[in-house]
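As the work plan foresaw, the team has encoded backbone shapes as discrete tokens. One protein thus recorded appears below exactly as we store it.

:::
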Amino acid sequence: MMKFSLLLLLGSTQVNAFIPQFIVQFKTSTVRLNVAPPLYEGKAQPLFAEDDDMIPVAEAYVHAKYKQVAASHGHKVANKDDIKEVLHSILPPVTPAELAKEEEAILKSLLSHEKNTADAIDEDDFVKSIVQNSYWRDAGDIVVKELMYFDSLHSYYKTGKPLLDNANYDELHENLTWEGSSVATMSAQEAQFVSTVAASKRGEPLMDDDEYKALKADLKQKGSWVVNREEDALEKMGLNTFMGYLHRAL
């Protein structure tokens, strides 16, 4: 598997991370903090209402997930079971009951359309239903962007192939940086650890127990905050983050 190194310059802090190949060019900017609504209240504004540059990135991400899962089962068009598998990885880390409830709602909506059947669910229809599904809206912009970032890493570690092209990954990473997201400044080891924990919650372990214990011990020795379930900077400010969802699911 190919590895790519990026040196992020954040003030006086230098962070090394392994990510798909591109060069991030930073510009002087004010950090934007989007306050997400309370979880699951069902009254959130449309996703990326004030950040429309992220809409095509989210759409490209969901298209890639649809194609990836369908192809893994030898399908050109995803069926009902494929869609369930996609949903397991693109919804925020929640309880099994919450996940099952959202899966049921999304599938019910999709299958109410004449062109969709249990054996063939239209890709464009699926993408539209996901980009504005209730859990993504209620979680808020930051959680969704961090989720896409981690799932892209998860896919890269698992298959060696990026979900997003360089332009979309560049846009996503830079956007998270200006949000003040701790996700964007994680080291390669920290990102792999979080991706592994999240994947394990989905029942898709990325590494065996010995590898996981060795990685966790190494990060703990280095004093990394991610192994101690500490709140990240945005979480401490009362904002919804991917790490916050993950902490609640543990």
Notes: Residues 1-42 have pLDDT under 50 and may be disordered.
